[in-house]
Amino acid sequence: MQTMQELYRARRTSAAGALDHVRNGDMIVVPTGVGEPPTLLAALSDQCKRFTDVQVAQILAMRKYGYFDQACRPHVRHAALFFGGASRAGGQGGWCDFIPNYFSEIPTLIERGLMPADVVFAMASPMSASGHFALSLGTDYTMAAVAKARAVVLEVNPNVPFTHGQCHVHVSQVTALVESEEPILEVGLPAIGPVQEAIGHLVAERIEDGSTLQIGYGGIPDAVVMQLTGKRDLGIHTEMIGDGILTLVESGAVNNSRKTLLPGKMVATFALGSRRLYEFMHQNPMLEMHPSNFTNDPYIAGQNEKLVTINASLQVDLLGQCGSESIGHLPYSGTGGQVDFVRAANRSRGGQSFIVLPSTAKDGSISRIVPTLAPGTHATTSKNDVNYVVTEWGVAQLRGKSAKQRAQALIAIAHPDFRSWLREEADRMCVFS
After folding, report:
1. CA distances (Å), 249 to each of 230, 236, 277, 278, in order?
2. Which residue from 262, 256, 264 is spatially nearest to 301, judged by alpha carbons?
């Protein structure tokens, strides 16, 4: 019987050798964000012309590899589960594919064969003594893909933390191993301006000690975080762990002691931050990384009492419908976990869900509170789910309110320059009749 080290050596290969496990027509599943394996994906880009009709499915690609170019589309193309800076141009131009989804349900799509998962390319920690690797930077839907895939190829990197949780792959499950030592991509905190700070204050003052937090990425969520360092006994049940959460841990605000689900444990499904964050994650008994069908499932996440969820939107109409992922018909991001966590907070005893957005765009020339979503907008969170909407001008609470009351509350937090126009449009639509 082979030892773990013998199995490891037998599976070790070069990046070029790993590509031999890819067949024409395959779907390659790649983890979220910095969980993407750069050595493998660079090799795939360099040799894309040897393949036909291969797709690479991923949420939030971080680096713009060669297969994002239009010329590569017949050979290897990106299938976005969520657009980011690397993939947005291809999505808007039509040469990158888009698979609509709720983040919580991607593992189910894979398990049921609704979304193919022929090959996995993923970044992984070094192997433990028991023969396990941790997919700690992007656990997400990748664990479901590992169980389904014909070939599992891991890029093993000593800079990847080994974490607790349901994020471990045994060497016997692995088809090929490629070693690299490239530093993990670091992502800094977004810029926080006065508008973000004002919104952050309005949300932060409504968060009680002992709450459990889900915090999205962006200037406004991080502005909330920076105003929570004086709180106590906060918990974390989120999709993304970033440096903002690390700040709350270091300040003493987060200790997870009053969580009702997994007390004492922070829970996340992917990481996006600095080297200091990745070092904090390594072997930390306070943190567990789980797949998104655990972290984002509204029924599971909603078992946390006083769950507070904070997510950004691009547009909100006078009924409270959110267009959070496109500008008109042009894709910008994706649904991600927004709907998952809005619904989770609505289920939670004492829960609060906040949709946050500046009141204007384009230097104040456009209102983000609108009579109706712009034509072609991808509707994200429904009017039936949205509760609190927050701009720098105030907070509108919507659940349980009539259409007229919702419009009045939303107009009150729109920029003053647009309130008369919004009232006129509401009258024209007979909202106030």
Report:
1. 11, 10, 11, 14
2. 262
Supply 78's token pair: 């990106």
Q: How far apart are CA 297 and CA 99, in angstroms?
A: 19
- Report d(CA 243, CA 233) in Å as an integer: 18
The whole-angstrom separation of Cα 181 and Cα 160 is: 9
* 300 contacts 347 by C-beta, under 8 angstroms: no
Note the pLDDT tens digit of each residue in 109-127: 999 999 999 999 999 999 9
Catalogue the E-assigned strands of 69-198: 76-82, 97-98, 119-124, 132-134, 151-156, 168-170, 176-179
- Between CA 372 and CA 82 the distance in angstroms is 24
Using one digit for the tens of pLDDT, what is the confidence trace for 345-393? 999 999 999 999 999 999 999 999 999 999 999 999 999 999 999 999 9
Label the pairing between strands 76-82 and 360-361: unpaired
Task: Give the predicted TM-score (pTM) of the model.
Answer: 0.96
Active site residues: 239
Nearest of 286, 361, 281, 344 to residue 310 by alpha carbon: 344
